[in-house]
């Protein structure tokens, strides 16, 4: 069975009802929302508008997000790497402002040890690492803390990950990788209760691989950790429907329902309100009281 909570220090975050993680990308180039939170377009320099970021977060929280995931590095296919300083400059002011304005669990989407340490010091409760703590120094940056960690599978690096992707058995290969990363964390003294796993839809996978993973998501339950998924607006949905990135809401909700029915605990999404509706329908199907 999948675990239904995660530990953050002495606190437990209950996941017996699936939770929504709203995406707050503070990047100029993320694939569906890059640059939206920029101060002034056309100035040539990307600066996050704190006010726009906070208002966007506020809307997601009002719609029911239990986590806000702040990311300063675009991980879309083909994205270039960002410098450590640039990532810090994008993420930290937003993280600090979120902490002072809202009572919300903030997650930081980063693989960079210095950003991990700074995010933890600034109050992040979860580190969402698409590289599963594989960068040198990432485990050390986290092991002294008590935050939760999402270990995601990615093959290669964003810049090149969609080139010539091959797996003999995508489900088992992704699962074995996650198993290895869990063991590495545990050997470094990171308690299992702090970990979440994510198969990494779209990260070094063809649409067929992504749909095989989605079809067999329940196989990840044997890892006995909460499962986080992110399919929001991704190209796998475009491949299945022929729709552009801004027309993929219905497809994303359909994929989310498939994931919920196989035990997904956290849904990372741009579209919080619609995802909460999907969770409420799923809960009603399971027999939860209908109160509206
Ligand atoms: C940062 N990021 C982009 N897509 C993601 C996904 O599918 N999962 C996680 N954990 N992070 C993601």
Please explain how this structure is put together:
The mean pLDDT is 92. The protein has a single domain, classed as TIM Barrel (Alpha-Beta Barrel). The relative contact order is 0.14. The strands form two sheets. It has an eight-stranded parallel sheet with strand order 8-7-6-5-4-3-10-9. A two-stranded antiparallel ribbon has the order 1-2. It is built from nine helices and ten strands. The longest helix has 18 residues. It is 36% helix and 16% strand. It is an alpha/beta fold. The chain binds 9-methylguanine. The site of 9-methylguanine has 13 residues, from strand 7 and strand 9.
What's the arrangement of secondary structure elements?
Layout: E1 5-8, E2 11-14, E3 19-25, H1 50-62, E4 67-71, H2 84-101, E5 105-109, H3 113-121, E6 126-129, H4 138-143, E7 148-152, H5 170-187, E8 195-198, H6 207-215, E9 227-230, H7 235-241, H8 249-260, E10 264-269, H9 272-285
Parallel strand pairs: 3-4, 3-10, 4-5, 5-6, 6-7, 7-8, 9-10
Antiparallel strand pairs: 1-2
Helix pairs in contact: 1-2, 2-3, 6-7, 8-9
Bound molecules: 9-methylguanine.
9-methylguanine is lined by residues 71, 75, 109, 128, 130, 150, 152, 198, 200-201, 228, 230, 268.
């Amino acid at each position: 069975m999948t675990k239904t909570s995660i530990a953050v220090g002495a606190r437990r975050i209950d996941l017996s009802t699936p939770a929504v993680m709203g995406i707050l990308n503070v990047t100029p180039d993320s694939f569906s929302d890059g640059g939206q939170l920029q101060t002034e377009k056309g100035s040539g320099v990307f600066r996050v508008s704190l006010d726009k970021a906070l208002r966007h977060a506020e809307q997601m929280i009002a719609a029911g997000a239990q986590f806000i995931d702040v990311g300063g590095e675009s991980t879309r296919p083909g994205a270039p790497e960002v410098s450590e300083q640039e990532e810090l400059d994008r993420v930290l002011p937003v993280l600090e402002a979120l902490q002072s304005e809202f009572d919300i669990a903030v997650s930081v989407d980063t693989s960079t040890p210095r950003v991990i340490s700074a995010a933890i010091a600034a109050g992040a409760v979860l580190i969402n690492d698409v590289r599963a703590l594989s960068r040198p120094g990432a485990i050390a940056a986290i092991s002294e803390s008590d935050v939760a960690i999402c270990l995601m599978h990615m093959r290669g690096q964003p810049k090149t990950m969609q080139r010539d992707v091959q797996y003999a058995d995508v489900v088992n290969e992704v699962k074995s990788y996650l198993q290895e990363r869990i063991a590495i964390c545990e050997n470094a003294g990171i308690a299992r209760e702090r970990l979440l796993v994510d198969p990494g839809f779209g990260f070094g996978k063809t649409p067929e691989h992504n749909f095989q993973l989605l079809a067999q998501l329940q196989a990840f339950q044997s890892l006995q950790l909460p499962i986080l998924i992110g399919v929001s607006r991704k190209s796998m949905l475009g491949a299945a429907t022929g729709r552009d990135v801004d027309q993929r809401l219905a497809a994303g909700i359909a994929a989310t329902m498939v994931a919920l029915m196989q035990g997904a605990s956290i849904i990372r999404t741009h579209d919080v309100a619609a995802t909460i509706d999907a969770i409420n329908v799923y809960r009603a199907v399971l027999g939860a009281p209908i109160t509206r």
